[in-house]
Amino acid sequence: MEGNIPAYYSDVSFRLSHALDKVGLSEHIPHLYVFGSQAEATTTQGLKSDVDILACINDISVLQSTPSLDTSGLAYIMVSDASTPPGYVKLQTMNRDSVLPRHHSFDSFGNSVLCSRNFYSANYWERHGPAHKKICDSGHSVDFVPAMRIRYWPCQASQWENRINSYPSQAHILLIKQTGALLVPVGHPLSPESHLEWRISISYGEKILVWQFNSTQYKCYVVLKMIKKHFVQPKCGDKALSSYHCKTSVFYALQSTPSFLWQPENLLLCVELCLRTLCQWVQIGYCPNFFIPEENMFDGKVYGHIQVQLLAVLHDLLRQEGKYLLSLSCDGVGQRLTHLCQTFLIDSVNQTKDGVESMGITIVSLTNFIAISQEDIALQDLDEKIGFVKKICCAHTTIPEVLRCFYSSSLGSDLASQCLAYGVIDKERLDIAHELLSLGCASDVTSGRLKLAAFYLIQDNFIMAEHVLHLIHKNYSYLVSDWSTIPTEGALSKMLENNLSVAEFVRQYVALPVLYFQSDIHCMPQALILKMFLSRGCDISDPYPSQCACVDPKFFLHYLEYQCYFQQGKASHKMAALNNMMWVVFYTNLKYRDSALSLLTCCLMQDGKYMNAWKVLCISMRLQNEHNVAMWQIAFLIKDAFRFLNHRQ
């Protein structure tokens, strides 16, 4: 959402929050002790949510490891093998000498396991996944779900706590882990042994998280469910997008945003943040479970024409910038909102300040011209560049000052690369390169500073690199625009209020991508070198030539943070940077996603997370199966993995 927030969002958010109060979503929401929307109080009369009844089978013990003593009664141990999908387990019997009841079978390894299919059958009830559904006389449906309780935190979710920055709190983490989990009788839809598999459900933990929602978070979740019911289901069917997917998007949004964002004046912004998250998941066909991210909750649901239709619906909603709320039929929210807004929304959409639109187009034209100029100077020989920059510095009345900064940044990176290429460090030329890169920091919010931080990392000057990266973080705000979009009305209004020139506006509010050319080969990450020389013709819409490599600034910021903290041995900071990288890659709208995936793979391999790196490469190949650096990285991954295994042996 950065750089694209219409001015009317705050006013509409207040009115939407008030309209939802009128349909029963006030701040005083009761806490019930059943499962589903009824228990979470995240439903309204118009949503007609199901009543979920969970029945735990207490006479069966489920263990995660083999006990040292004999277990009395019927007991099973949770097992998973190479063919068991993440988030699922098989229940292997531990009572080998006793007569086993029905519903047992042998898996592909010859182990006696408990079948999940038809584990519990209820007469006159319709089977839906793990639930048995029955329509009551009132028109509401009741879902009866048999389950078995795991008293301890499941092993497959053991890394969940390590991936957390600030949400949820440590107190809630402890409480959630103490509740354990459930096993429900349903297998993975694409697994050949689905009839033998049981899904891990952390319903208690999810209910605890939902109970901690503030009023805005509750309302955001409910609006998403209304959008699903009104816009998605009529076009994509009931199974394409579920309330659980919506809830998961809220969890991830809370984990990646500051808590002060979730206020009534930002309700619409929060809804659209979750919609963008869902859109990103649909685009890559991967919805990560909040507790076990390796589990793809889109498997068997979002694929083929359903995926295409769902993506089209979400894109259309995001293009409307909130106007779709006026047509929400659930509980008459759209009509209530229209009445509350009266003519404000229409007037705000149609009203533009004098010169704002033309100013925005001028800034986009300038940033595109900057990109072309960067390319021109990068393709010149080093001696010609030095002479050219000297002329610019002497004749700054004819060359825009902002372009001098970009030329300086490109020249500094080129000069540093030339010095490092010779093996013998030329300190005088490196000092000149540092001076030029420092001057390039005045180019825009990010790109010049990121090149300077990368230069410090190459020099093993981690203190200065960390300092520059901290400054970039400090200068980032929601007003920052990327180079290809017209800045927001709010950002342009700020430009008018502060009487900023176009050049100064670019310095303060525009984040350009980081460009590396062949002449910068000794100052750039290896993954970008591979992309430059191996990814030919991969994107015809890419404005830059194949002899360069581009990376989105926000992702590159987290990548450099990871490298800086990795070299300094700051494990917690390193993991935070890695999590931020994964968030930006999968849940934001990147222009150069292939570059980001390549860099993310390198970091995962560097950290020894070979399976995670493999999954990222598979996603990259799914998005683009030709002219993709991932094909080469797969070979490097296999080589490193074998080397790691041999070293352990």
Question: What does this molecule look like?
Answer:
The protein is α+β, with helices and mostly antiparallel strands. The protein has four domains: 9-30 and 213-350, Poly(a)-polymerase, middle domain; 53-204, 2-Layer Sandwich (Beta Polymerase, domain 2); 354-514, Alpha Horseshoe (Serine Threonine Protein Phosphatase 5, Tetratricopeptide repeat); 525-649, Alpha Horseshoe (Serine Threonine Protein Phosphatase 5, Tetratricopeptide repeat). 50% of the residues lie in helices and 10% in strands. The chain has helices at 9-22, 37-40, 170-178, 203-211, 215-236, 243-256, 267-284, 304-319, 333-341, 344-350, 356-378, 382-394, 401-421, 427-439, 447-458, 462-475, 489-497, 502-509, 526-534, 553-568, 571-587, 593-606, 610-623, 630-648; strands at 51-56, 60-63, 74-79, 88-93, 104-106, 112-114, 126-128, 131-135, 141-150, 181-184, 197-201, 481-482, 510-511, 514-517, 548-551. Strands 1, 2, 3, 4, 7, 8, 9, 10 and 11 form a nine-stranded mixed sheet that branches. It has a two-stranded antiparallel ribbon with strand order 5-6. Helix 12 packs antiparallel against helix 13 (401-421) and helix 15 (447-458) packs parallel to helix 20. The longest helix is centred in the middle third of the chain and has 23 residues, at 356-378. Mean pLDDT is 75; it is low at 27-35, 343-363, 392-400 and 536-545.
